[in-house]
Design a protein that fits this description.
The chain is of the alpha+beta class. It has one domain: Alpha-Beta Plaits (2-Layer Sandwich), CATH 3.30.70.20. The protein is built from two helices and five strands. It has helices at 15-19, 42-51, and strands at 2-5, 24-26, 32-34, 57-60, 66-68. The longest helix is centred in the last third of the chain and has 10 residues, at 42-51. It is globular, with a radius of gyration of 11 Å.
Length: 69
């Protein structure tokens, strides 16, 4: 599974950072950035994506098909 952030939608709430700090961080613009997601359980990625109030976290399968949102 791959994770990416739509920075245009991100408002910097930080739920993703709280739930998956090994994957997400907030940058100097207070926008989420996705780091390496290879060592994190998929359920953690799903929880982080679903916690985003703006649906800015996008989950894709290994073939690039969008799974969420």
């Amino acid at each position: 599974m791959k994770v990416r952030v739509n920075r245009g939608l991100c408002i910097g709430v930080g739920n993703c950072v709280a739930l998956a700090p090994r994957v997400f961080r907030l940058d100097l613009q207070n926008k989420a950035v996705a780091n390496d997601d290879s060592m994190v359980e998929e359920q953690v990625l799903w929880d982080a994506a679903q916690s985003c109030p703006e649906n800015a976290i996008i989950l894709e399968d290994d073939q690039g098909r969008q799974l969420y949102p």
